[in-house]
Structures are given as structure tokens and as C-alpha cells.
Amino acid sequence: MSTCILCDGPYEGMGHNPEPLASYDDGRCCSECNDTRVIPARLGLMRETMKRFDSPPTERSDTYGEWDTIPVTPDE
Q1: pLDDT tens-digit profile of 13-23?
Q2: Residues 33, 12: contact at Cβ < 8 Å?
């Protein structure tokens, strides 16, 4: 029997990857937390990512190791 990294409850078997709520290296989570917390968090991150794709295009440039977002203006 193992302990869930998110709720400290017991679980049997291999458990689930708790990312993005906790590091996989710190432990695993139970099925209950996976279903009610981890999956919704992942879907929320997906929604945020999709919003970026729906926004106006941007050009990315790596300056000194940091990413800057520069709006792209249409050619006239």
C-alpha cells in the first residue's frame, strides 16, 4: 500500500502521475485525486494553451536565454 502525494490517502497498485499538481519525482497519486484534481488541472492547462493559438499570431525570439513575445503586424 502506497500513500497519495496529493491527499495522503492510501492507494493500491502503481498509482498515477500527479503532474502538474505535484512532481512525478515526489510520488504518485491515487485514482480519486487523478480523476478529480489532476485530469481537470491538465484540461485547464490545455484550454489556456488553446487560447494562445486562438489569439493573434506572434513572433518569438530568444534574447539572452529568455523568450520575448513580439506582436506580428500584417504587411500592408
Answers
A1: 999 999 999 99
A2: no
Q: Map grid coordinates 492510501 to a residue.
A: 10
Q: Where do the structural domains in the chain lie, given as residue ranges?
A: 2-71
Q: Render the burial of 4-23: b for 16+ CB within 10 Å, e for the rest.
A: bbbeeeebeeebbebeebbe
Hey, CA dihedral for 37, 39, 40, 44, is it positive or negative? positive
User: Which residues have C-beta within 8 Å of that of residue 43, sequence separation ≥ 6?
Assistant: none
Q: Which amino acid is at 5?
A: I
pLDDT in tens, 28-76: 999 999 999 999 999 999 888 887 776 655 555 555 555 555 555 666 5
